[in-house]
Design brief:
It contains 16 helices and no strands. With about 290 residues, it is mainly alpha-helical.
């Protein structure tokens, strides 16, 4: 199996809502306004509910309540809507993917935590686009779900090798030794199959090797660093950490992201609070 073949199998099972693709077209066309886009989203009740819950959550911290998608667009703008729509669409699409190799709730908690942390770092350090950083962080490990579902024996061998490793060899290196590729490679292939923007393909594909990103090194560095700060909630890791500890990050990421104990504490405090609400927002009923 290859990353492309696993991605192809995943695309056959998991697809983004038709509304996402239609709205993408509308966002790029000046003929359509917020009301037009709102009407398309309204045809997807579950998507509408998720969008409005997210807009009204502490994640955005808006002063007044937003009751319609068109109002949300007018308040947040089309770029923020695109990122929010992609995040909620992926969450919806992957509800059909399950695996005995990972607790899916834990998986999404880690992914959301990573996305929120990337967004917070972007805002604190004024690096990259904060909403793109969130979405890229949310997506960074989707290759794991595809790998666990479509190549479970291969994935199990890598997980067992990782668990036996006395030196805590990273999981992606165990995957590389077993399969010749990693979950990051699978994730990048999947996003390519979905024809998602290059920023996400690079951030997902190189979140363990940020030096490989060329056109979106800033967002990739944010996701790499956020992932390092999210190990305490990552399935298979969940190690006890001091909130002021500075994680080891790749030198390519360190050129963009400068961590201090104060920044790490502030980001982790906010991520701890926001991640619970965002998880409930994306995966709650309706």
């Amino acid at each position: 199996m290859t990353p492309k073949s696993i991605a192809a199998e995943t695309v056959n099972l998991v697809s983004l809502p038709r509304a996402y693709h239609r709205i993408n077209e509308m966002l790029a066309d000046d003929r359509y306004g917020a009301a037009d886009i709102g009407r398309v989203i309204a045809n997807e009740p579950a998507l509408t509910a998720r969008l409005l819950r997210m807009v009204n959550s502490a994640y955005f911290g808006l002063a007044s309540r937003i009751d319609t998608v068109s109002f949300a667009i007018s308040v947040l703008g089309t770029k923020a809507l695109h990122e929010l729509l992609l995040a909620t669409s992926v969450a919806s699409a992957f509800e059909r993917i399950d695996s005995r190799l990972v607790d899916v709730a834990d998986f999404w908690h880690h992914s959301i935590y990573c996305g929120i942390t990337a967004r917070l770092l972007s805002r604190h350090l004024k690096i990259g686009n904060a909403e793109q950083a969130f979405t890229a962080g949310l997506l960074h490990d989707v290759g794991k779900l595809a790998l666990y579902h479509h190549a479970p024996d291969m994935a199990r061998q890598a997980l067992e090798a990782f668990a036996r490793s006395p030196s805590q060899t990273p999981l992606y290196q165990a995957e590389l030794a077993v399969a010749g590729f990693t979950h990051a490679d699978v994730g990048r292939a999947l996003l390519e199959s979905w024809e998602l923007p290059r920023v996400y393909r690079e951030a997902v594909g190189f979140h363990h090797r940020p030096g490989g990103s060329d056109t979106h090194a800033d967002v990739t560095a944010l996701v790499h660093t956020a992932n390092a700060l999210s190990k305490k909630v990552e399935p298979g890791h969940k190690i006890a950490v001091d909130d002021n500890d500075l994680p080891q990050i790749d030198p390519a990421a360190a050129r963009w992201v400068s961590l201090t104990p104060e920044l790490v504490e502030a980001v982790r405090t906010d991520a701890d609070l926001q991640s619970i609400e965002v998880y409930a927002t994306l995966f709650g009923a309706g």
